[in-house]
Amino acid sequence: MADEKKVGAYICSGCGIGDRLNMKQLEMTATRDGKAKVCKTHDFLCSKAGVQMIQDDIDNDGVNQLAIAACSRRAKVEAFNFSDVSQTRINLREGVIWARPEGDEHTETTQEMADDYVRMGCHEVKAMTVPTGSDEQPLVKSVLVVGGGITGLTAAVESFKTGYSVTLVEKSGALGGMAGDLYKRVPTRAPYAEPEETGVAELIEAVNAADGISVHLNTTVTKTAGAPGRFEIDLSTESGSTETTTVGAIVQASGMKAYDANQLPEFAYGKNADVVTNVELEALAKAANGGSMKRPSDGKEIKSVTFIQCAGQRSEKEGHLSYCSGFCCNTSIKQAMYFKESNPNADTTILFTDLRTPGAGGEDFYRSGQKKGILFSKGEVSEVVPSAEGLEVKFNDLILGEETSMQADLVVLATGQVPNSGPDPYAAVPTKEEKEAAEASNTVEISVESILNLDYRQGTDLPHLSNGFTDSHFICFPYETRRTGIYSAGPVRRPMDTLQAQDDAMGAALKAIQSAENAGQGRAAHPRSGDLSYPLFRKEGCTQCKRCTVECPFGAINEDERGFPQFNESRCRRCGTCMGACPVRVISFDNYSVDTVGNQIKNVDIPDEFDEKPRILVLACENDAYPALDMGAKNGYHYSQWARVIPVRCLGSVNTVWLTDALSEGYDGVVLMGCQKGDDYQCHFVKGSEMATMRMSKIADTLQQLNLEEERVSTYEVAITDIQRAPQLINDMADTIEKIGMSPFKF
Amino acid sequence: MTEVIATNQTILVVGGGVSGMTAALEAAEMGKKVVLVEKRAFIGGRITQLYKYFPKLCHPTCGLEINQRRAKMNPNLTILTLAQVTDLTGSEGNYSAKVTISPRYVNENCTACGDCAKAVDAEFDNEFNYGLGAMKKRKGAYLPYNMAHPQTYVLDPAMIGTEDAEKAKAACKYNAIDLEMQEEVLELNIGAVIWATGWRPYDAAKIQPYGYDRIANVITSVEFERMMDASGPTGGKLIRPSDGKEAKDVAFIQCAGSRDRNHLKHCSRICCMASLKQSTYVSEQFADSGKSTIYYIDIRAIDRFEDFYKKVQANKNVSFVKSKVANIIEDKATGNPILRGVDTEGYHRYEQPHDLVVLAIGMEPSLNEAGFPGEVVINEHGFIERDESNGAIFAAGCAADALDVNRAVQSATAASLRAIQVVNRVAGAEG
Amino acid sequence: MSELNIAMVEKYRNSFLHEVEANVEEGDWVKMCMQCGVCSGSCPLGSHWEHSPQKLFMMIRAGKREEVLSSDSMWMCTSCYNCVVRCPREVPITHIMHGLASYAKRLGLVPKGQQTAKFAQHFWDNLVKKGRVNELKLGLNLYFMNGFAEGVKTSLKMKDIGLGMLKTKRMSPMEIFGGHKVKDLDGFQAMVKKAQEIETARIEKNMNA
Questions:
Q1: What is the mean pLDDT of residues A205-211?
Q2: A559 beta partners
Q3: Is the pTM of the predicted complex or chain greater than 0.90?
Q4: d(CA A464, CA A468)
């Protein structure tokens, strides 16, 4: 019978394993306790011969569950690469012989460690099946691009060039967006000296010429349902008609809104027509089209202009933006050049506090501006006062250390970018007091319109990172938003200029296409890219408690009309947080489940109380804490012989049943190692560490019920660099147990 | 012989730093065949030598672990280390690349057990730690660093032919050491190229007034970064090179080699943020007794980095002086570097001693020294320009511009799509 | 106020920077300064400057004409070129300092009793006479620049150096009588005159432009 499970244990004696451990004993453990049908040792298992030995058993002997006892699962991955079988790695090298000192006095406990791990591995793999990938969605080679500005246009053109059809949706009646309203843009090429054409017209032409791009103007997305590979999008026009289209993935390029300069009365905005924003200046420049620019108030030629940088930005004042929009210094230089273009003698002054023109091109452009006679003064502007001659700009000259002022025909406020994002699904709900206070002060509640209208359990739009931007939280993975298959690009993601937005559009297009391809093959997206497992659900056991739908960090799980979870497999990132959340343990993955871990916990030999051999269960995040322990061991940082370490996909996948089982079976302590939580969380599954901590805070009750000390369970934030600290934390638990004594639950 | 299968539907990625790694992985995960060529013995590039990223203060090796796992599991990706592209000819959809691989003297049998390192006595400068501190030396048989991928030891070429090399060979139980290994030259046919050779720190000794070559306690930002690594040169302690004294009063000098006609004309973008970040290291180690002073021209903390800048500004132990430091002299009695200059906000002269000076060193594209083996447009700063005439050679990351990690990865992802479009066209044409 | 000064004020009413760009040697570079301050910190006489070079440049941009031109700061420059070497923008600071000084002198705005200005005048007068610097006369001139008593005092202080120079034939006592000159003194003086004419013409041209 092909489906019959047959465990093969393969034990390597290389790298000193055979010198330190009794191999015969390990074999016996594997066959007797681990119930391995086949058990072989090899002195160089990762060699071609060793790997062939295993492959032969798979091919000829029907072995389909491999427990490979050798080095860490992080090593020799390429060598131990077998298809169509379940596999686990038993870490005898980094996890046992390197984690423990040599010497006769340690031989017994080190061997016990190894025996336990062999038992654990054999029983773990027994609970696994080979994942086959989700077939919930086909390969759909199309992308929805929301927003017809320079970012959206670029994403559309580039997706089309990659062989995908595109639905391009634009809310207004024309393509081009804010970049289309620019007279020129900051140079994108050496020598970075002169403003250049925006290229938006050419992009629009390319979009219109592409037969695979369908453009929908005056249209919004009124509903987004489904998942990567099967997104169902309702497109509604102003006139009220709605059509539904199916796409594989989504790029959100909803762009930016101009900052409302009415918040800046101190600069006379709105009180004097000759105070304009950098957005409005583009319109003046476009109207002048290279000719001399005229003052809005009286049409007089503008001979002097002052730019006020950071207007309403980098400021904690109410209504101001706390961040720096990054593009405005270069933009002001560019706009000052507009004036110099028609009149080299025009006085153009830029008042700044920090001039920010980073990167290769920025400094060249700054110098080019200076060469053209644009003046730069480090100063903080306090006020703009209309005067008989025009406008008086009052400022504190920070170099000369004095309050001073200058006259200008026109003042340009270098205002910032405000992201055009939908409401944050995780925005803090205002408290009752806050609501009452808002009502009392008669503040108008600004309702933010949804961009995507996601038909998701967790909100209608992409979560915000900060200040309304839908950026990724991860430095190394700028496209990792928390909604699989939906990638944001351009100034909705982070303040940026047009060049960056175009690069960003390409990056997002790649990720969108990749996610559609992954969905079509039933594979996971980042960070477990390629993983074919997905959450399996035993509906009959479900109590509709909704914890999984609430806790999923990616908003992947919806609820059906009866309150059962709908997993939307291609939205899932395979972290297992749902599995950790489920009180009735009905959620699992083929290769990772309550049983795969539970079996390991159960198959550790618990010596009785009088042996004085405690057992410490360590559940370690496989991406950070586990490597830290591996590397610590390699560097000679040993840890307690009582520890049994089990890597977990994420601390969020830790089901409390594992802990209660462990404690009631006589483990003396439990250590959980996850990633940093809080605002600067480092968990790649976003909430794993936080969830675990929350769940563990409730474990105190269980401990009380069992009449166990609270100190027996500790949760830590461990970084991958903690190669000394991680082993130390285990040792601390060993010390604690020595102090408080052994668990009374040993049978 | 190294066997690599490549066709004109293969993408060649040159440089295995964060940009090259990203470009390669993104393409490989789209099902494209990718060959990644890396000059060093391991991938990961400069981020492997960083302690934390700004502004999140998370560890680069965390993301690296994910990327390395992606690399290990992806059959579409071939990684060649100790390899360089020495010639590149052809045009879009059909290039020929010559890849020269230096001998590692260790083959794929290596299990990274470390027996060879234990057997040899010969020691060499540890380039990974910039020859700093107690771990300025490494063995002649070595794993470049803890997380090195491939996890395969390397023999220093200078050791070959010595008794130590024989000792290493004898110690290896797995026949992994091959002292006869020779330089190899591969000719690869490929469809598109992603050039991601990154950057190197500007040579600080060239900034004569700052005395990097004369004053022990003047170091660079990349060296300072190594000090925080628990397995780094100082075991994670901020101590100064001259006498091992705790560096509690640290000066950071911005634009060290950047924005300067005498050195690099461009702004290197990352250095302001790097110094702000490094000031948090001082606080992390010494709490209130640690002081940082940042000497700057403009603090370039764009977008949400501004929030991080504000956080650092709020720390009373960090002060800011708007001044390009004129020069540094050494107080011979104490070893303290003394900074001289003028605070331009209000014209105050200073002559200020500090325990340690960190030069926020500029980012020089790696390209301009090695030259480019084919034809592309390179601007005066040494970065590759976007140009039609570059054909299907696409720059990614710091080969294209001075970028931080986040923007480099963004640039690399975009470059990856450009390359994918080319090999898709080739595939389409060939049916 | 000199006539020229009045004329210049009139002409460049709005922009002292433009005035500097047009009339001061290398004045065109002032706008390239990015206020890093490395020049100010690099000046060996820095602490004697009321306004550092970078600050002078800012004052020029801010239109502080009187303060700049009547300042004695630029007179402090000893042409060591430290600032020029270190300036990240390659601004020829030394030249601009001399240019400002010379322009201020032309406009009659040098502060009274400015020592460097006085010395420069002595040097110039000494030089144009014979086309060669007469060190003996220049030295004595200098000692007595601020009155007889101080001259005697300084002479006594410097006597050993003077005697040493005489002994090693670095200075001849005979220089007190006329002194040596260039071969073609007339030609030299004509050249200087021509140069002065050109300079005056340039300034006038600027005025009328």
A1: 97
A2: A565
A3: yes
A4: 5
Same domain? B242 vs B370: no
User: Cβ of A635 and B346 within 8 Å?
Assistant: no
User: What ipTM did this prediction achieve?
Assistant: 0.96
Residue A444's pLDDT is 47
Give the gap in angstroms from C-alpha C140 to the nearest C-alpha of chain B. Answer: 36
Domain that holds residue A354: 258-417
Cβ contacts of B385 on chain A, cutoff 8 Å: 189-190
- Is the domain C3-111 a CATH 1.10.1060.10 member? yes
Check whether residue A6 and residue A121 sit in a common domain.
yes
DSSP string for residues in C118-183: HHHHHHHHHHHHHSS--HHHHHHHHHTTT-HHHHHHHHHHTHHHHHHHHHTTSS-GGGGSS----T
Same domain, B350 and B285: yes
Tell me if chain B has a CB within 8 Å of the CB of C90. Answer: yes
- For residue A701, the model assigns a pLDDT of 85
Question: Using a CB-CB distance cutoff of 8 angstroms, which residues of chain C are in contact with residue A379?
Answer: none
Q: How many domains does the structure of chain A reveal? A: 3
From A370, A399, A404, residue closest to C55, measured CB to CB: A399
Assess if residue B85 is contained within a domain: yes
Spell out which residues of chain C touch residue A376, defining contact as CB-CB under 8 Å: 34-35
**Nearest partner of A409 among A309, A276, A261, judged by Cα:** A276
Name the residue in chain B with its Cα closest to that of A530. Answer: B29
Residues of C in contact with B325 (CB under 8 A): 38, 41
Is the pLDDT at B110 greater than 80, yes or no? yes
Dihedral of the alpha carbons of B48, B53, B56, B57, in degrees to the nearest 10 = 80
Segments forming the whole domain that contains residue B154: 115-171
**Interface-testing mutation among C32, C33, C35, C36, with chain B (most B C-beta atoms within 10 A):** C36
Please judge whether A370 and C35 are an interchain contact, meaning their C-beta atoms are less than 8 angstroms apart: no
Confidence check: pLDDT of A519 > 60: yes
A643/B212 Cα distance (integer angstroms): 48
pLDDT per residue over A1-22, tens digit each? 456 899 999 999 999 999 999 9
Are A675 and A624 contacting, i.e. CB atoms less than 8 angstroms apart? Answer: yes
Chain A interface includes B91 (CB < 8 A): no
pLDDT at A440: 64
